[in-house]
Amino acid sequence: MEKRHGRQTVGFQGDVRICAYASVAGQKEKEGPLGECFDIVMPDAEWNEETWEKTESKMQKEVLKAALRKAELKSEDLHYILAGDLLNQCIGAGFGLREMEVPFLGIYGACSTMIEGLSLGAMLIDGGFAEYAAAVTSSHFCTAERQYRMPLEYGGQRTPTAQWTVTGAGAVILAKQGAGPKVTHITTGKIMDMGVKDANNMGGAMAPAAFDTLCAHFRDLGRGPADYDLILTGDLGVIGREILIEMMEKEGYDISKNYQDCGCMIYDREKVDVHAGGSGCGCVASVLCGRILEGLRQKEWKKVLVIGTGAMLSTTSSLQGESVPGIAHAAVLSAE
Amino acid sequence: MEKRHGRQTVGFQGDVRICAYASVAGQKEKEGPLGECFDIVMPDAEWNEETWEKTESKMQKEVLKAALRKAELKSEDLHYILAGDLLNQCIGAGFGLREMEVPFLGIYGACSTMIEGLSLGAMLIDGGFAEYAAAVTSSHFCTAERQYRMPLEYGGQRTPTAQWTVTGAGAVILAKQGAGPKVTHITTGKIMDMGVKDANNMGGAMAPAAFDTLCAHFRDLGRGPADYDLILTGDLGVIGREILIEMMEKEGYDISKNYQDCGCMIYDREKVDVHAGGSGCGCVASVLCGRILEGLRQKEWKKVLVIGTGAMLSTTSSLQGESVPGIAHAAVLSAE
User: What is the residue range of A231's domain?
Assistant: First the structure.
C-alpha cells in the first residue's frame, strides 16, 4: 500500500499526465481578467440551442471535442469519461456526451466535480485500467438560476454573500505518459457539515471542507504552504476565501501569500456586479483548463495545489431546513 | 495494459473481494418473494423521520453501518465511499453519509449506480489505492414519485409499462483480500440513446444499453451466456426483460435459460399491483446485497454476471422533449 499517504492522500508512482485541456466560457467571463484565456467563447447564453439546458449539454460536448483535438486523439481512444454537473440527474453530462460512444462514469461532487473526475481519472490511469481518460464538467448561469433559485424573469434581489454561477466548462485528458502537467498526488475530501443553513452563503458553507482537506493534505504528506507556488480553491468567493485564510492561520499555516480562488479570479468585481464572486462546476473547470494548466505548461508555476469545493445541497434539502454540507477534493499538479 | 480486455472490459489481477454486504427494504418489498432475505426491513415509509428524503438518507446510513458491522470494520477503516442516488443533487447519499468521516466520491449512474460504485471501488482496490472501499445506493418509492412524477396525494393513474420504484438500499464493502465473493471483471457501459421518449417505459429505454454492454462483455472476453450460472439485470422489468432476450437472440445469444431481472424478482406481481415490476437504484442494490451475494457465498451459483441499468433522464429533459438515454454497467462475481 505504498501508494497511500496517511488517511486521505494517494501518490502516483507512474507518470500521470494531463496531455490536453480545453475551456468554454460565456460573454460575462470573457469580459473578466481571464477573458483571453478560454479556448471557446460562447456568442451568447443560448449558443444556437432552444433551451439553456441543451446549451449546457453542448458546452460539455464542445469542450471535450476541443480537448480531444488538442490531444490529437479521437473519442474512441478514451477508455473512460468521468463527467457530471449541477443539473438534476446530471443531464448536462448525460445528454452532452451521449454521442461520444465512450465508457461513461457519471460523477456528482457539486462544484468539486472537476477535481473529483481528475482524481478518479488519475487513479484509473495509474492503476493500469486506462491509457486515456477524460474528466469533464460545466455550469451555466441560466440553468443554475432556474433550477436552484428563481426564474430569471422574476428579477430577484441577491444577497451580498451570494455568488454568480459561472457559465463555463472544462475538460482534461489524462494520459499514461507523454508531455503536459503531471498529476502527482490527490487528497480526497470527506463531507463536512458545520451547520451553515444559508444557501446564499456557499463560500461560508464550503470553507470548512476546503480547510479540512487542505490540513489533511499537509498532514498526510508532511508539507506546508511553501511547498506550492500556488494554492487554488474552486469557488469559495471573496467571503469563503477570507474564512479559509483565517481558519488556516489559526491552525498555524499562512496561506495568504500564495493562495487564490477561481471564483475571485474570473470576474472583475469592480466592473460587474457578481457580489461575492464566481461559483459553479464551471468556475474551477474553466479557470483550471483556461489559465492554470497553461501556466504550468509554460513553467510560470512549478507546483500547484488545486482544491475543488462543492456544496452538497438541493432545493429540497434547503426547504426541509437542512444545513449545507461541503466537500473539497485536492490534486497536486506539477510542471515537471 | 494487460488488465484491459477489448474496448470496455477490465479484469482484476489481484484478489478483489466483497467482504460484506447489507440490504434495507420496505414493507412492500418484504411481502415479495425475497422478503426474508433483507437485513433490515423498515417499519413503514417514514422510519421515524420527518420527511421521506430524510428517511432515504437514513437508509444509506443504516445500510452502510450494517455492512460495516458484518465486516467487523469501522468507518475509519474505509479509504473511500462511492455513493449516489436518484434524488436531485444526490442528497440521499450526501446527507446520509456525512457523519461517516470517510473520503467521499459522489457518483451518478441513475439506477446503475450500485454497479458503477462497485466497478470504481474494485478498480481503486485493485489499483492499490485502497484496502477497503464501500459502494452504497438507495431509492425510496415516495421520494421518487414526488420528484419525478406526481404528489402521492394526487393518486395519478399509472400506465401499464410503468415500473414501481423499490424502497430499498444496498451496501457492499470491497476488500483487497480475504473471504467473500470475488469481483473478477467489470464492463463499463456507454450512454445509449435509441430515441425512446416515453418516460413511463424505462425498461424499453434501458434495454438497448443492457444489450450493448452485454454484447461488449461477451465480445471483450470471448464468452457467452453459458459461462454464467446467472445473468442478472437491475431493473428492466417485465417489458425490458423481454426486449433484451429478443435483442440478444437476434445477435445469436440465447440468454432465456439463465437470465433474470431484479425488477421482476422483487415483487409478487400476482399479489401487488406494480405493473411492469420494480425499478430504482435500490432495486438491484437490495436484490444484489439481500439475495445474490448470499447465494454466491453459499455456492448456490458459482459465477454471476450482474448488469446495473440506468435511465439518464430528468423531469426537465422530458419536459423539453428529450429522449431517455440509457446506461448499463456489468460486473462478474465469482463464488471462488
Answer: 182-334
A51 touching chain B per CB within 8 A: yes
User: In total, how many domains does chain B have?
Assistant: 2
Q: Hunting for cell 435509441 — which residue is that?
A: B194
Which pLDDT score is estimated for A1? Answer: 52
Give me the residue label for grid cell 451475494: B293
Cα angle, residue A204 at apex, residues A202 and A206 outer, rounded to 5°? 65
Element (H, E) at B55: helix B52-71
Name residues whose C-beta falls within 8 Å of residue B105's C-beta, 6 or more positions apart in sequence.
A107, A109, A116, A119, A120, A188, B80, B81, B82, B83, B120
Q: Specify whether A48 is located in the same domain as A121.
A: yes
> Whose grid coordinates read 496561506?
A255
Report yes or no: A121 at the B interface, CB cutoff 8 Å.
Answer: no
3-state secondary structure of A186: strand
Selection from B71, B73, B60 nearest residue B24 by Cα: B60
Single residue among B158, B175, B192 that ends a domain in this structure: B175
In this structure, what CATH number is given to the domain that contains residue B64? 3.40.47.40
In a shared domain, residues A56 and A89: yes
Helices A52-71 and A141-148 cross at an angle (nearest 10°) of 140
Query: CB-side exposure of A297: number of CA atoms within 13 Å?
Result: 15
Close Cβ partners of B307 (under 8 Å, ≥ 6 residues apart): B115, B210, B213, B214, B231, B232, B233, B234, B328, B329, B330
Q: What is the pLDDT of residues B84-103, one digit of tens each?
A: 999 999 999 999 999 999 99
Mutation target for B interface from A105, A111, A324: give the one with most B CBs within 10 A.
A105
Q: Does B316 touch chain A (CB under 8 A)?
A: yes
CA angle at B265 for the pair B261 and B271, rounded to the nearest 5°: 140
Q: Beta partners for B190?
A: none
Secondary structure of residue B154 in the 3-state scheme = helix
pLDDT-derived band of residue B11, with 50, 70 and 90 as boundaries? very high
Measure in Å the smallest separation between the Cα of A112 and chain B Cα atoms: 10
Residue type, A245: I
- 156-195 of B, contacting A, C-beta below 8 A: 188-193
Q: How far apart are CA A171 and CA A255, in angstroms?
A: 28
pLDDT surpasses 80 at B1: no
SS3 (DSSP) at A245: helix
Compute CA distances B157 → B57, B152, B198, B301, B311, whole Å: 28, 11, 15, 40, 21
CB A108 within 8 A of CB A90: yes
Shared domain for B24 and B148, answered yes or no, is yes
pLDDT in tens, B236-293: 999 999 999 999 999 999 999 999 999 999 999 888 888 899 999 999 999 999 999 9
* Closest by Cα among A124, A140, A115 to A49: A140
Least confident segment among A298-312, B126-140, B144-158, B248-262: B144-158
A74 touches B: beta carbon within 8 Å:
no
Point out the residues of chain A with pLDDT beneath 50: none
Helix/strand/coil for B329 = strand
